[in-house]
Design a protein that fits this description.
The chain is an alpha+beta fold and about 190 residues long. The chain folds into 2 domains: about 120 residues, no CATH class; about 45 residues. This is SHOCT domain-containing protein. It comes from Epilithonimonas ginsengisoli.
């Protein structure tokens, strides 16, 4: 009986140790195996919103610069808080690693980047979409099933955003068609 109990404890601790993503001390272990921690320099990829801005890298929610209106900026506060597209390819240093959520609803993992304006990165989504570049040795380990499912969802999200931009008058019909064709050609 004691041996069985000991075996169960060992197995449960091993399964906990292997669940990813997770945070231990001040290090975030991602599903790709990439470890993120304070003072690590990371490279920003390319924004995935229709205008090229970043969907998963945005002004930190605790920042004084965080835009919270739901009526201004055409009701698109997330776009107002996005890291601008002209930051593609830049390198930033991680300020801190955060876990948000609960066991019941699940957790999301963020890193906060050092800058004049603090930006937070939804790590798993930023990695999956290429907004956060991975070093070469970690690129082949991104889960493919989730990538395929999520890329289809992202495609519809992009199309929805394009339609909103068209309806609000930001895009002309020609610009909308050009961008829509680009999105449809992805994958």
């Amino acid at each position: 009986m004691k041996n069985l109990l000991l075996l169960l404890i060992i197995i449960s601790s091993l399964s906990f140790a292997q669940s990813l993503p997770r945070i231990e001390n001040d290090t975030l272990y991602t599903t790709s195996g990439y470890k993120l921690y304070p003072k690590l320099e990371v490279k920003i990829g390319v924004g995935t919103m229709p205008d090229g801005d970043f969907k998963y890298i945005r002004t930190n929610s605790a920042s004084l610069f965080n835009y919270t209106s739901t009526t201004g900026y055409q009701g698109l506060a997330n776009q107002a808080n996005s890291l601008p597209r002209n930051n593609s390819g830049f390198k930033y240093v991680i300020k801190k690693v955060e876990e948000r959520g609960s066991k019941k609803r699940g957790f999301n993992y963020y890193v906060v980047l050092k800058n004049i304006i603090a930006y937070e990165v939804d790590v798993e989504n930023a990695i999956r979409t290429g907004e956060l570049e991975l070093p070469e040795e970690f690129r082949k380990t991104i889960p493919t099933n989730d990538t395929v499912k999520m890329s289809t969802t992202d495609k519809y999200d992009k199309l929805k955003k394009l339609k909103e931009l068209l309806d609000s008058g930001i895009l002309t019909q020609e610009e909308f068609k050009t961008e829509k064709d680009k999105v449809m050609a992805e994958n």
